[in-house]
């Protein structure tokens, strides 16, 4: 499976998603590692087996083994952090923000790839998982690290398109199973 297979599987009503999926994976200004790490970590965040299989097969052609693992690590750590930090934010009592999380997060300090790349992947996964506090935190680290708003926006577009691809394909699968 590949990105092209995903595009072919999208129904006619999702033509915009199909075109966007082609565009975000072929016209990126991100480095190859940033691009494919973002696509892979986002695919994992969708939890769609079909999207994960296709993206991981293609991402493997562009990412080193270390970068592939780091992208998986970004999706994993954000699956935990996005729930915790979104919840403490949504409760509305800022006291929770002052309490230590007491969650192990060592991969963020030592991800095995360039810190900016890992932060970009964490940001994109946080967009899918809907954690505003994590989005703010990772965006600040990226901007302080010299990444432009345009490149950050590109990662957000990738997250949106990969998520939409998974949503459409999973919905279609459910509809055809009825």
TrEMBL record:
Active site per UniProt: 131, 134
Enzyme class, spelled out: oxidoreductase
Swiss-Prot/TrEMBL catalytic activity: N(6)-[(R)-dihydrolipoyl]-L-lysyl-[lipoyl-carrier protein] + a hydroperoxide = N(6)-[(R)-lipoyl]-L-lysyl-[lipoyl-carrier protein] + an alcohol + H2O
EC number: 1.11.1.28
Cystine connections: 131-134
SUPFAM superfamilies: AhpD-like
Superkingdom per UniProt: Bacteria
GO biological process: cell redox homeostasis; response to oxidative stress
Annotated keywords: Antioxidant, Disulfide bond, Oxidoreductase, Peroxidase, Redox-active center
Gene3D superfamilies per UniProt: AhpD-like (1.20.1290.10)
Parts of the chain that traverse the membrane: none
InterPro entries: AhpD (IPR004674), AhpD-like (IPR029032), AhpD_core (IPR004675), CMD-like (IPR003779)
UniProt cross-references to PANTHER family, sorted A to Z: ALKYL HYDROPEROXIDE REDUCTASE AHPD
HAMAP family hit by this protein: AhpD (MF_01676)
Role this protein plays: Antioxidant protein with alkyl hydroperoxidase activity. Required for the reduction of the AhpC active site cysteine residues and for the regeneration of the AhpC enzyme activity.
Complex formation: Homotrimer.
Protein's UniProt name: Alkyl hydroperoxide reductase AhpD
Source species taxonomy: Bacteria, Bacillati, Actinomycetota, Actinomycetes, Streptosporangiales
Gene: ahpD
């Amino acid at each position: 499976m590949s990105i092209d297979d995903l595009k072919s599987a999208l129904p006619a009503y999702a033509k915009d998603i199909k075109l966007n999926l082609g565009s975000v994976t072929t016209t990126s200004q991100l480095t190859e590692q940033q691009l494919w790490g973002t696509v892979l970590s986002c695919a994992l965040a969708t939890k769609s087996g079909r999207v994960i299989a296709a993206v991981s097969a293609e991402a493997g052609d562009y990412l080193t083994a270390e970068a592939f693992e780091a992208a998986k690590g970004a999706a994993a750590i954000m699956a935990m952090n996005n729930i915790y930090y979104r919840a403490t934010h949504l409760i509305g009592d800022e006291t929770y923000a002052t309490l230590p999380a007491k969650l192990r997060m060592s991969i963020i300090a030592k991800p095995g790839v360039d810190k900016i790349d890992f932060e970009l992947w964490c940001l994109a996964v946080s967009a899918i998982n809907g954690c505003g506090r994590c989005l703010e935190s990772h965006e600040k680290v990226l901007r302080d690290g010299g990444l432009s708003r345009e490149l950050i926006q590109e990662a957000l577009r990738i997250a949106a398109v990969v998520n939409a691809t998974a949503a459409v394909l999973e919905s279609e699968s459910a509809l055809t199973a009825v």
